[in-house]
């Protein structure tokens, strides 16, 4: 009961809590990353829809996957405000309800930290991408500073309640997945708590078939 109430409150306050971080530069990073999206596109873990305003005209169709009912309600409201062009799907990253080779582009932003099985999620993303299709990722990751990494390993409150694992080495997970990393930049999430600051932004691709 407490966790359900907490998740409702978290979703209700998410946009307000994210505001300072977005205005401090994260919004620009989203926009620059998503400018590379094109064709049929799927976003995994769309949350409340902070990426929605940044998809370019080159995106021909957009599917937003979000498993949390409270987030989906707010995602639906933002979609309606922006024109309602995207489809919202209730599904998990580990079991995407789409045929093989459905999408030209997949997007994950601050989502791989909270999936139950990162390896399975990346395998699914690779499966639903067309050969040569791109994954655009922006994720907070395990710090290279041992002191910060130790704090991340503690996974303090409230991270367990929202299912967030700030200590994941997500770049290594992508590198060992069926996807090929093409570019990656290391940085920091502006104005975020210390254990959430280490960040990677980049692209990976499903290998083309011969």
Description:
The chain is α/β, with parallel strands linked by helices and 210 residues long. It has one domain: Rossmann fold, CATH 3.40.50. It contains six helices and seven strands; from the N terminus they run H-E-E-H-E-E-H-E-H-H-H-E-E. The protein has helices at residues 2-34, 69-82, 118-128, 146-154, 159-162, 170-175, and strands spanning 39-44, 59-65, 87-89, 103-109, 129-140, 180-188, 198-205. Strands 3-2-1-4-5-7-6 form a seven-stranded mixed sheet. Strand 2, helix 2 (69-82) and strand 3 form a beta-alpha-beta unit. The protein is globular and about 45 Å long. The N and C termini lie far apart (52 Å). The relative contact order is 0.15. The mean pLDDT is 94.
The portion of residues assigned to helices is 25-40%
Q: How would you state the average pLDDT, rounded? A: 94
Round the Cα radius of gyration to an integer and report it: 16 Å
- What would the principal axes of the Cα set say about the shape? globular
**CATH topology annotation:** Rossmann fold
- Determine and state the CATH class: Alpha Beta
Query: By CATH's scheme, which homologous superfamily applies?
Result: Vaccinia Virus protein VP39
How many distinct domains? 1
Biggest sheet layout: 7 strands, mixed
* Secondary structural class: alpha/beta
Order of strands, widest sheet: 3-2-1-4-5-7-6
